[in-house]
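As the next step, I needed to go through one protein, both as residues and as discrete backbone shape codes, included below for the reader:
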Amino acid sequence: MLSLFGQNRALLVTLVKRDLKVRYKASALGFLWSFGRPLALMLILWVVFSHFIGLQTAHPDLPFPMQLLAGILPWMFLTGAVFESQTAIIANENIIKKIRVPSVVFPGASVLSNLVHFLLALGVLFVFILFSTVPFGWEIILLPFLIFLQTAFLLALAMILSSLNVFYRDVGSISEIVVTMWFYLTPIIYPLQVAREKLQESSDVLYYLYMLNPMTPIICGYRRVLYGSLLRTGGRELDDRTLVMGLGVSLASTVLLLFIASKLFTRLSRRFADEL
């Protein structure tokens, strides 16, 4: 199943370009909207959780807005990929019915187009960091691995949701609820040490269950990669060993999810044309 992406590279690129053109058509700011939406969300969360609630950051010298952006940008990548890919098969039903084409390229294109938005927004964040008091550390070389890991994870989710949504239209409503809950169960607004302290007060088991969330080490990894020069000198959310183990669990979960997604999509795709 995954080999089909390589065999249909040209079609995949065409679909991604189409999605990008539709998104930015007649837009005055163009790709800057890739950063504008996360920036607006960051400002709201900054005011509410920093000034009203008084949440701490992962490091006393790390500005709260920069901590938020390191979590919000990959999360916007997730939400965009999930919500757009789950309707990818239905939205392209005319093509699927008329032309013999591997339908997996449609959710794949949704994930990749959102990857482009993420990379553009990440580029703007780099500019912010360059003009801040938080210099890059050597950890920045690990950024491609994190991006690849998250993209693979989202591709597996996209294949599962897009195929199920053809037969069960409740998938969209359910995913909205799950993603909202998932947001607050991931250390985006708050640093991981806050969740660790609160959960371990009740039970270590709750903390270990919390760490099974594949996005937890990924978000912590982004913060460590982007602000490693600070987080390695104190106030780290995770020590190196725990972070590596967490990313290893996320990688194993992603590989397993890709296997399941490939089998499920292959099985259900045979009935797409009849069901659409």
Q: What stands out?
A: DSSP finds 15 helices and no strands in the chain. Residues 3-275 form one domain.
